[in-house]
Structure formats: structure tokens, C-alpha cells
Amino acid sequence: MDKIIYAIGDVHGRDDLLRDLHEHIRDYHKLMHSGRDAEFIHVGDYIDGGAHSREVIDRLMSGLGDFQMTCLLGNHEAMLLECLATDNRQAWYTWLSNGGEETLASFGMSLRFGGYDPDELRACLGEERIAWLKSLPLYKTIAPYLFVHAGIAPGVPIDEQQPKDMLWIRSRFLESEKDHGYVVVHGHTPGDEPVVKTNRICIDTGATSNGLLSAAVLHGTAAPVFLRAVGRPGKTA
Hints:
single chain; Purple Acid Phosphatase, chain A, domain 2; five-stranded mixed sheet; 8 helices
């Protein structure tokens, strides 16, 4: 792996932290790895919880200058996409109770005077954002790493993994000591600090709960370096 990878954890509507971390990474790359190719890989969950999901999506869609950027699908984007296709109350309740109300607010949509309307949601998001959300891949491999939102089912070949596991898995993956063939870099399960194991690296440090957004700097088999943006916990900074 010749290029430098900056893998960024779950943002959850905290555009303030994302802006600061992007700038921090750009400065770090210029100082430490000037002239080397670099790629930003975001591991999903750009929306829900924080107050600025719309701004996060628009920032990611705009890219970051000369840096290559890959954005993976998270379970929160998957919940939003499901609601775009249905007025099923359970699907909408699941999304809204997991931070979706803040996302609706960031797009100026209120449920106060109506039901669960996928057409209104589509109109608020706009076709360009919807197309971007639908284009998000489930995972990316750059040996020796596999980047995915939640993790993978241990012992299952990558091309046979189920999307539900890649988006939602926790204990079965987190407690596994199995060699997955890659070091799996993931988010989804927040903690106070990044977690580094022989078979996985978790970079979700709780953007809303802790006010911390972290990135792992990866190149080859060198030990990861972690960068972070720090703000107040909560929906806004």
C-alpha cells in the first residue's frame, strides 16, 4: 500500500467536527507526507443525532480538493433509504428514534402536521443527494485493510457477507479473535478511544456522545496514528 489512508469514524451530523478534522488531516498530510498520494475513507453514519446532517452530506459530496474520497454506507443511511421507499410506520419509527428527527430538521421537514411521507422526504433531500446515498458501497479493501461500517461475520468470505451484518453486526464480530484475512477498520460501536486489535481497528469515538471525531492514519503495516477533532458532546458544538 503506497498511499496514505485517512479512515474517519462516524460523524452523525457533527459538521463542525468533520470540518475541523478534514482541515487537521490536510495540515498533517502536508507536514508528514507531502507529495504522497492520500485517500479519505469515511466508514458511514454521516447523519442522525447531530444537528447538521444536511451540511455533512453536502460537504462529503463536494469532496476535498486533490484528495481521493470514498464514503461507505452506514446503517443510518440505510434506514433513511428504507424510509424513502415506504410509509411503513415501523420503518420510520426505527429511523426517527435513532436520531432521524434531527436529520429531518436539518432538511426543514417536520412530521407535526402529517404522516410518514416518502415523497416529502424525497423532495426535501433532492435527487442529487438521494443518488449519492444510493451509490455508497458497503465496503472497500486496500490490503492489508478492509473498510466497512460495522464489521463482518467471522468465517464468511467477503463476497458472501450479508449487508445486514456489514451494517449492524456487533458482539459476534467484536468478540472474535479470528484472522479475517484483513485488518477490519470499522465504526458503529462508539467508545472513548479508538480500539486496536490484531484483527480490527474501531474508529468510532462518539461524535455526539463524546464530542470526538477520530481518524486513523494508515500506511502499510505501520502502527496506526490517530488524529481527532474535539468539541462539546451533544447535538451541536
